[in-house]
Amino acid sequence: MNNTDKIIRENIEHIREKIDRAASKSGRLSSAVKLMAVTKFRSIEEIRSAYGAGIRLFGENRVQEAVEKFSDPALRFDDARLHMIGVLQRNKVKSILPYVSCIHSVDRIELMEEIAKRLQAENPSLCPAFRPLRLLIEVHTGEESKSGFTSEDGIVRALEYAQEANLNVGGFMTMAPLSASPESAEVHRSFVTLREIKERMQKRFPSFSLTELSMGMSSDFETAIEEGSTLVRIGTALFRNAGAEAQA
User: Fold this and answer.
1) Which residues form the Alanine racemase N-terminal domain (predicted)?
2) Burial of 106 (C-beta count, 10 Å sphere; 0-12/13-18/19+)
3) 8 A C-beta contact, residue 78 and residue 52
4) For residue 144, what pLDDT is reported?
5) In whole angstroms, what is the distance from residue 75 CA to residue 79 CA?
6) Does the CA dihedral 203-208-210-214 come out positive or negative?
7) Does this model's pTM top 0.85?
8) Which domains does the chain have, with CATH numbers?
9) Which end of the chain has fewer surrounding CB within 10 Å, N or C?
10) d(CA 236, CA 90)
11) CA 173 to chain centre
C-alpha cells in the first residue's frame, strides 16, 4: 500500500464514521446512505486507490474528463458505476451515455428529450450492462449559481414527459447554498425542501420509484443525511492530502 492508498483509505474511514453518526442521529441505518467519490480533477491512481478502499460509486462533473479517464482500461471495474453529476449539455449526451448508469443533473425537459432520443437509438445488443439508465431530477432549492427546476409545476411537467418517453426517473438532486454554514437553518431548509418535493411527487406519480435523494457534499453531507439524503457526493474530504499532495 502506497502513501496515496493509505491517505485515501483513512479519509474514507473518517467519512464513513461521520455517515454512521449522522444516520444514527436521524434514526436511520448508515447502509441507507450511498457514498460517492467525486473524481473531478483526480488522477487514475487516486481513483484506483478509492476503489481499493471499497468505493464502488464515482461521480464526474465534466463529460470530456469522464470519457478520458473512464475509457482507460485501468478504470474498467465490473462492479463499479459512474454517474454524471455536472451540468450536461445536449450535444454531450451521446458521448457520455456509454459510460454512466445515472445522470443526476437533469435540469430541463429539452435535456430529457435528447436523452430519450439517444437511448432509443442505442443498439440493444451493444447496450452497457448498467441499463436502464437512471435519471435524477435536479431541483434548485438553495445554491443561486446552480441550475435545476425552480418550480413544482416544472417538476411535474418533467415527470409527465418521463412517463410519456418511458424514462427511468429514480429521484432528485440538489445543492445547498455554498455560502451558508453547513448547519444553518438555510442549509437544513434546502434539504428538507427536496425531501418534501420527493414525497409529494411519489404520491402523484406512483408508477415511479422516487427513492433517491442525492444531496450533501464534503461540507454539508452530515446535515443532508439528517434530512434524508440517500446519496452523498464527496470529493474534497475523500481525496484530501492525496495524489500529488501526498508526495510533497
Assistant:
1) 12-239
2) buried
3) no
4) 63
5) 11
6) negative
7) yes
8) 3-247 (3.20.20.10)
9) C
10) 28
11) 7
The SS3 assignment for 73 reads helix
Residues whose CB falls within 8 Å of the CB of residue 205, separated by 6 or more in sequence, listed in order: 159, 163
pLDDT, one tens digit per residue, over 20-56 is: 999 999 999 999 999 999 999 999 999 999 999 999 9
- Indicate the average pLDDT of the chain: 93
* Cell numbers representing residue 172 in the block: 432528485
**213, 219 contact by CB (below 8 A):** no
Q: Is 220 helix (H, G, I), strand (E, B) or coil?
A: coil
Sign of CA dihedral 143, 148, 152, 153: positive
d(CA 236, CA 245): 13
What cell numbers appear for 211 in the block?
427513492
SS3 105: strand
Please state whether beta strands 57-60 and 34-38 pair in parallel, antiparallel, or not at all (unpaired).
parallel
Q: pLDDT confidence of 248, banded at 50, 70, 90?
A: very low
Q: What stretch of H or E contains 104?
A: strand 102-106
**Rounded Cα distance, 97 and 136, in Å:** 15
